[in-house]
Amino acid sequence: MKVLGIETSCDECSAAVVEDGHDILSNVIATQIELHKPYQGVVPELASRLHTEWIEQVVAAAVKQAGLVMTDLDAVAFTNRPGLLGSLLVGTNYGKALAATLGVPFIGIDHIRGHLYASQIENPLEYPYLGILVSGGHTVISRVESYDKVDVLGTTIDDAIGEAFDKVAKFYDLGYPGGVVIDRLSKQGDPLAFNFPGPSMDRKEHPYDMSYSGLKTAVINQKDRFLVPGKTDSKENIAASFQRQAVGILMKRVRIALKDTGLTRVSAGGGVAANSLLRSELKELEKEGYTVTFPSLKLCTDNGAMIAGLAYRYLSDGYHDALDVSASARVTAFKKF
Ligand code: KG4
Ligand code: ZN
Fold this sequence. Notes:
- By secondary structure, this protein is α/β, with parallel strands linked by helices.
- It is 41% helix and 18% strand.
- It contains 11 helices and 10 strands.
- Strands 3-2-1-4-5 form a 5-stranded mixed sheet, sandwiched between helices. The chain has a 5-stranded mixed sheet with strand order 8-7-6-9-10, sandwiched between helices.
- Helix 4 packs across helix 11 (304-316), helix 5 packs across helix 6 (178-186) and helix 5 runs parallel beside helix 7.
- It starts with a strand and ends in a 21-residue tail after the last helix.
- Bound molecules: 5'-O-[(R)-(carboxyoxy)(hydroxy)phosphoryl]adenosine (KG4) and zinc ion.
- Residues 111, 115, 135, 270, 302 line the site of zinc ion.
């Protein structure tokens, strides 16, 4: 089954063809990064306008690169929740219209589940596992029971981890997108130059919840308070010290969750799963006997392949949508217990 996956939830206009849920025949990602750069953040109105202009070419390129023609497609999938509504509507409406024209089934896919599924395409991991979703919009530690059943254990109570990376980078004018630049700068910095604080939270009630706004505020507004005597104040040192703490906050909860749930498998997804420090810290868990997977870098940030891959599972189990399916900006993927 050849599934076309369309992803337009934020600032990447992507389309991919994945065969039988695991063979990525193409994965075209047209990024709007350069066009949002002057604003140092995604401008929703601009994003949806660009998706409208690009979607047809991006889909055509994905089908061509897969060595196919449109009529070879067996199904169409599109991200229809959550995200920027105007952007989601472009992929949703285009996907529905294309599927209707071709006379093939179609399905709207949840972006969050897509990220959590991405690593399954390349490195299938047995369920259940601890699923970590770290992106610009979400920070979630979950128990993943199946491709469709995700129980949230903990989330951020304020900023998402990627948002913290982006805001710190924006404040210090380090470059855009922030996470990638901080990751790169950190390699030349001293992670112990600043002793930025982690959140003080009631661990008993919410042992897996996280907070990033305190760290962000400390780095942006009170940096000098946290400079370790004898260390240098430089952008490399700010980046490395911030990154150490941002990853540390997450890893602390991941470790507690692993211990409490007894899960032995871990998988991460989302844009921040491309972070080199987070990847190496997760890899460290293997020394303690855990099985760890994460997607290749191209499948961490937003992409159509994760949408097509996950859609294959639903379609194989007989699920598909009807023409009244629409887009939703809100999170509907999972309830928190
Ligand atoms: O998954 P994604 O492409 O979009 C959302 O669904 O949000 O994630 C984008 C986020 C941005 O905040 C970006 O700064 C961050 O992922 N990011 C990184 C890295 N690469 C992307 N953060 C830290 N280190 C990276 N290497
Ligand atoms: Zn995403």
